[in-house]
Amino acid sequence: MSTKPNTEFTKDLYKAILTLQTEEECEAFFKDLCTIPELKALSQRFAVAVMLDKNMVYNKIVEATGASTATISRVKRSLDYENAGGYSLVFERMKDE
Predict the structure, then answer these.
(1) pLDDT tens column, 50-60
(2) Residues 37, 21, 52, 34: what is their CA dihedral angle, to the nearest 10 degrees?
(3) Which of these, 37, 36, 16, lies nearest to 26 by C-alpha position?
(4) What dihedral do alpha carbons 13, 96, 67, 23 form, nearest 10°?
(5) pTM here?
(6) Which residues contact 65 (CB under 8 A, 6 or more apart)?
């Protein structure tokens, strides 16, 4: 498998996720797809991104999520420099709900 993020397999995964219609369907799919540690890691990274978007400081994020400062820094770098726009898109859409 290629190390590039947009392989045929990755695109198939994105398409599969887009078929999910409810939170319950999403939960069932991700429980099947991911191990518990993988799902916890994804959830933690998203929580960190949400908190960084709200300008929370690192020590408060560590306290709230248990994430390492390295994880927080990686997420911050993604938000600040390597931003593909995904977080912003999701944050904006979640505000509308």
Answers:
(1) 999 999 999 99
(2) 10
(3) 16
(4) -50
(5) 0.85
(6) 44, 47, 48, 51
